[in-house]
Amino acid sequence: MPFAVYVLGLAVFAQGTSEFMLSGLLSGIAADLGVTLPAAGHLTSVFAVGMVIGAPAMALFSRAWPPRRSLLLFLGAFVAAHVLGALTPDHPVLLASRFVAALAYAGFWAVALSTAVSLAPAHLRARATAVVVGGVTVACVVGVPAGAMLGERWGWRSAFWAVALLCLPAVPAILRSVAPGTGTPGNTPSGTGVESAGVERAGRVSARAELRALARPPVPLTLLTMVLLQGATFCTFSYLEPLLTRTTGLGTVWVPVALALFGAGSFLGVTVSGRYADRRPVPLVATGLAALTLGWSALAFLAERPSWTLCLILAQGTLAFGTGTALIARVLSLAPGAPTLAGSACTVAFNLGATLGPWAGGLSLGAGAGFVAPVWVSAGLMGLALVTAGAALRRPGPAPEHSPEAAVR
User: Fold this and answer.
1) Are residues 333 and 285 in contact, defined by beta-carbon separation less than 8 angstroms?
2) CB–CB of 100/108 below 8 Å?
3) Collapsed DSSP state (helix, strand, coil) of residue 138
4) Residue of higher predicted confidence among 224 and 155
5) Residue 100, Cα to own-chain centre: how many angstroms?
6) Cys bridge to 342: 325, 338, 386, 392, which one at CB 3.0-4.6 A?
């Protein structure tokens, strides 16, 4: 695996920590800035909106640039936004900085996914995807608890400074490992089988041609399956604390344990999926979706039993991120004619699901259906995902472009 792929995974870990760490910092932010807790919670919402808008917008904005330039620009903007956030005493400025950070992170993630796949040999592309996505799971397991500990000890601003500092080592690493203009690793000799055509093509293929590639069946159905899968995952994950403390009967001390189990499972799932998704992607996706549907249903039935609940949380984390990684790899392989926008489409699908799931789970709680209700919503969303995936997996992939010159600007 080219060294550059691991560099991209490290940078995604640093930025992914910022995406999730606010869950442990909101009370401190609200008290320091003199705003209500719901107002502080808008910092999370505006980040999600920035991710959804930023993935396609930033990919289009930077599509004519070499990947190294795009990656460094987005990383620099992300660091600058966190420095501003750490210094500002104003809530509106902090909101704006979070939006800018989300735009930069979305752009970086989209370019990083496409770059990692194009740098890896054909038989390791799913593993390259897993390395980049694995940065997010490591952020959940390590970065988010560390950010919460920093915030508790030295204040929420220290967590922002830590994220900015954590991003800095990726700058020289990207300069060293990603060659300018080509997207190939600077330390990879020719003839190794590393393909950079996808990255090079980003500067020549028109945006319209990339959109056509994304619109060809079964790409839209695969992206919709990703939205539903992530929606199911974040629906239950967002309301795990009341489920554990009020239905399962566990004390609050078990909440971080359960979150760590879910994070460890997600890392395991990404790792395993990266090793097998290149060989048998369709059986892996189909089996994962079916197992997730059964798993959420089982958790709904067994939520009052602590041992079963904790085991299922670990299993669902493994299945959710393992299957999600395989779906991302499949989208990238189904849309070779969209070297820039395929990664951004996956980023949008991930974040739409992360927005849809908590909203749907909140509606079920508001309806008075009990704290197990979000788990049943997750099972229902996975049922829909099985339907869309069944239709997608039955459709052949899009044919390659036979006249690429028609797509050249």
Assistant:
1) no
2) no
3) helix
4) 224
5) 17
6) 338
CA–CA distance, 272 with 127 (Å, rounded to integer): 9
Locate all alpha helices (DSSP H) within 120-218, ordered by sequence. Answer: 125-138, 144-154, 156-167, 170-177, 197-201, 207-215
**Cα–Cα distance, 409 to 390 (Å, whole number):** 36
Higher per-residue pLDDT: 270 or 247: 247
Describe the chain by its helix, strand, coil percentages, rounded to 5.
80, 0, 20
- How many beta carbons lie within 10 A of that of residue 296, not counting itself? 27
161-204 per-position pLDDT tens digit: 988 998 988 888 888 877 665 444 343 333 333 333 344 444 45
Give the rounded distance of the alpha carbon of 228 from its chain centre. Answer: 14
Q: pLDDT tens, 378-390?
A: 999 999 999 999 9
d(CA 382, CA 297): 10
| 204 within 8 A of 409, measured Cβ to Cβ | yes
Task: Decide: helix, strand or coil at residue 192.
Answer: coil
**Is the confidence at residue 275, as pLDDT, over 80?**
no
Element counts in the chain: helices (H) and strands (E): 18, 0
User: Torsions phi, psi of 178, nearest 5?
Assistant: -110, 115
Q: Positive or negative CA dihedral for 364, 365, 367, 368? A: positive
Q: How many residues does the chain have?
A: 409
Partners of 408 in the β-ladder: 205
Tokens found for residue 80: 């600058």
Q: Which residue has the tokens 């370019």?
A: 111
CA distances to 52, 64, 127, 302 from 47, rounded to whole Å, are 9, 26, 28, 34
- What are residue 185's DSSP bridge partners? 178
Residue that is written with structure tokens 């870990």 in the block: 13
User: How far is 152 from 170, CA to CA, in rounded Å?
Assistant: 27
